[in-house]
Amino acid sequence: MSETKDVLILAIESSCDETAASVVKNGREVLSNVIASQIDLHTLYGGVVPEIASRKHIEKINQVIQEALDKAGVMLSDITAIAVTYGPGLVGALLVGVSAAKAISFATGIPLIGVHHIEGHISANFIENKELEPPFICLVASGGHSHLVVVKDYGEYEIVGRTRDDAAGEAFDKVARAIGLGYPGGPKIDKLAKEGNPDAIHFPRAKVGESEYDFSFSGLKSAVLNYLNGCQMKGEDICKADVAASFQKAVIEVLVEHSLHAVKEFGYDKFAIAGGVASNSSLRAAFEEACSRQGVTFYHPSPVYCTDNAAMIGVAGYYEYIKGVRSGYDLNAVPNLKLGER
Ligand code: KG4
Ligand code: ZN
Questions:
Q1: Domain 8-124+309-322 adopts which CATH fold?
Q2: 208: Cβ below 6 Å to ligand 1?
Q3: Residue 184 has what DSSP assignment?
Q4: What is the 3-state secondary structure (H, E, C) of 220-275?
Q5: Ligand 1, atom 3, residue with closest C-alpha
Q6: Are strands 136-141 and 270-274 parallel, antiparallel or unpaired?
Q7: 85 CB near ligand 1 (under 6 Å)
Q8: pLDDT digit string, tens, across residues 105-116
Q9: Which atom of ligand 1 has the smallest separation from the CA of 142?
Q10: Which residues of 298-325 are buried (b: 16+ CB within 10 A; e: fewer)?
Q11: Separation of CA 275 and ligand 2 centre (Å)
Q12: How far is the CA of 308 from the centre of ligand 2 (A)?
């Protein structure tokens, strides 16, 4: 009897401010997940500084890759394919991962696969939910994206809703900065909101013209800024926890409403969330509740697989690998890569 050989993907992710590498076995088993975060460095500047991000990636990348192999207990010669994020993201940051992956592939002959960052975020759901298979609808809410995606099959997507302006995570980061919480704002607002009253201040829930699935968060951000200015001018005290909780409630309500509406209209019974904002505790609770009310099975990755990591790139890379996708040595960083494009 012939034994099927395990497929081991070495995955590399460097699209923003985390240098990450992982080894994933047969698509859904994470053997290692190493993340070198640069957050402390960028906190000094109140956001990610692209030039600093690239330099730090260069310093860390080889070390992080070696650590991922060591922790997985494998050698490069055991690896079936190398998956790397090639977009979207910061061009200088992406280039570091792409160059490292190409160099290893060229030196060893191990096949190379370029992976879309958002496809990675969506695929994070497959790690801990072994039974989850397409089709389903996924809300991807991160620092750069807010997409409602129909996952038709592995690697087959249709975007049915998107933000018209700021991404959800961007709104969290900007509001956090305005109330003096610093970068990154999402986790800080999440924590502070637990001490506040979500009904203290009514912030607007944006409607976006004729598109029922699109989002807009810049109006909400302006409403928070206006509220803060108004309080300052009147000499009134600002309860930061109430602002955080009320803002967070406004974001979550819109995300839940649009997502569940899409799930119903498109007739799916499975719904997943992904991206950094998906690690928000109130958002997870709100979706849990709304999905169970609507008879929809709700899936979400653990927080460590919501924010940027390489394990999710390894999972997406596996499904591309078994479909026969391979990248050439002309693979380049594509900062504004669209989902479903190659
Ligand atoms: O997916 P991610 O790590 O990077 C991108 O691809 O953008 O997402 C980062 C974003 C940041 O805007 C951060 O503030 C937000 O996710 N975020 C959160 C939470 N944790 C991270 N937003 C709300 N609540 C959280 N707990
Ligand atoms: Zn991301």
A1: Nucleotidyltransferase; domain 5 (3.30.420)
A2: no
A3: S
A4: HHHHHHHHHHHHHHHCCCCCHHHHHHHHHHHHHHHHHHHHHHHHHHHCCCEEEEEC
A5: 307
A6: parallel
A7: no
A8: 999 999 999 999
A9: 8
A10: bbbbeeebbbbbbbbbbbbbbbbbeeeb
A11: 6
A12: 5
pLDDT attached to residue 46 = 84
Look up residue 167 and give its two tokens. 């991404």
Please give the Cα distance from 144 to 147 (Å, whole number). Answer: 10
- Alpha helices, DSSP H only, in the chain? 39-43, 50-72, 91-108, 117-123, 125-128, 168-178, 185-193, 218-234, 240-266, 281-294, 303-306, 311-323
For residue 142, report the distance from its CA to the centre of ligand 1, in Å. Answer: 5
From the CB of 184, is ligand 1 less than 6 Å away? yes
Residue of 146, 194, 307, 309 best suited for mutating to test ligand 1, as the one with most atoms within 8 Å of CB:
307
Nearest atom, ligand 1, residue 306 CA? 1
Structure tokens at 141: 């809410």
- Single out the residue of 302, 304, 306, 294 nearest to residue 270, CA to CA: 294
Q: Which ligand is nearest to the CA of 186?
A: 1
Compute the distance from residue 274 Cα to the ligand 1 centre, in Å. Answer: 10
Please choose from 18, 142, 146 the residue to mutate so as to test ligand 1's pocket, defined by most ligand atoms within 8 A of CB. 142
Class of domain 132-301: alpha beta
Place of tokens 């129909």: 150
Residues of the chain with pLDDT under 70: 1-3
Per-residue pLDDT tens over the stretch 150-206:
999 999 999 999 999 999 999 999 999 999 998 889 999 999 999 999 999 999 997
In the chain, ranges of CATH 3.30.420.40 domains: 8-124+309-322, 132-301
Distance CA 246, CA 155 (A): 37
